[in-house]
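Below is how a single chain appears once it has passed through the pipeline. First comes the sequence as given, then the structure the pipeline wrote out for it. We keep one example in the README because the format questions we get most often are answered faster by looking than by reading.
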Amino acid sequence: MGRTIATGTEHLLAEVDESGVAVITMNRPERRNAMSDEMLAALATTLHAVETDTSIRAVVLTGAGGAFCAGGDVKGFAEGGGAGAGAASWDDGVHEQRLSHRATSGALFSMPKPTLAVLPGPAAGAGLSLALACDLRIAADSAVLTTAFARVGLAGDYGGTWFLTHLLGPSKAKEMYFLPERLGMAEAERLGLVNKVVPAGELEAAWRDMAQRLASGPPIALRYMKENINRSVTADLGTILDLESTHHRHTGTTEDHREASVAFVEKREPTFNGR
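Resulting structure:
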């Protein structure tokens, strides 16, 4: 049986299924899941909870009501005096946002478990940043991506500039930020921004299959694969060669490796227990 994770707000829902997949759902469908303070705070604490729960093997982030996430709540900005309003001081506001960035986008990118963004519809602004922070992305063919920040006079947040620059290079990242067009899924898949595109009616079956494949994989090996790849973005080759040596030798001592070796000889699928 699955179980729910208490998030403290209806703006974010979370549950864990029998296979160890945690599904986190941004839940403000009336505003295309635009971020609220409650949602962001809950996302931070929920990501920490799923990262430290050893029964959880993979993490899915998605949105309710046919959208992924519209990013910042622009209507709320207009009503409340702008995106920079609300904190006790300018410095406090910067620090609060830095903490939120690290606990959300930063956590998705760095946590030692595979993360999968499921896009049933638009991912815009900081919503796109959250999707790009995940390891993999699967989308309905009707979804669209856009940075959107230039349209509302903002520079961008939640790591989107870093993720796009490393995925596409600085020239294409600048184009997408300076000239925020709506990017369809055929082009997004061609560019490598999404890993798989399926008809909208097939999205749930497709993402559940992908998530369960991730959850049934070797957790220790996946942890170190992710670290190797993440660190390769900024490290030199010699550093990564040394890091791979350490991680490869370590995973070679695990029960999961021995089980997989025997399963290979016996021509069956291995069962990984994370040991």
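The chain has a mean pLDDT of 93.

See the next section for the split statistics.
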